[in-house]
Amino acid sequence: MLSAKVYERNTDNVALTFTQRLSSSLGQHPDLILALTAEERMRSRHKFQTLEGQIVFLQLPRGTVLHDGDLLYSQSNTVLRIIAKPEPVLTVQAAMPLDLLRSAYHLGNRHVPLEITSNCLRLSPDPVLRQMLEQLGLTVVEETHPFQPEAGAYSHHHSDS
To answer: Quick check: pTM over 0.70?
Structure first.
C-alpha cells in the first residue's frame, strides 16, 4: 500500500514513474489501476492517467508488452495493476469449430492481431475483414470488450521478475 509519505507527495498529482514488472505470485495489492487498450499495452515508454486520476509514466524495457493483470512497481513503492480496457472489437463465431479455424487461418495470413478463445475470435474493427468473414459464413458482431490478442509464435510471455 502507499505509505503516508508517498501519498503526501502525490496529492499534487506529481507523475509516478514505473520501471519494473512485479511477479504476480507475490500477492501484492495494487495502489493504482491503469486501464489500457491492446495497442496502449504495447507502449513501453509513455505517459498515462490511472483510473484514480494519477499521472504515470511507463519506462519499461523497449519491446515490453503488458498483459491484463500485470503489476508494475515504482521507485516510490507504488504498485500499479494493468487491466485490459474495453474497446471496439469484432467478435467472430461459427456454427462449426472447423469454420472458426479456417477464419483464424485466413486472418493469420494477413497478420491480423487476433484474440482466440474456445468459441470465438476477436479482432479490431475492419470493414474489409468483416466482409471476408461474413462471406465465409461466419457471424460477426461489433462489441465493446477487453481485447487481448495473441502474442505470436516467436514472442515470449513476460517473465515474472
So the answer is: yes
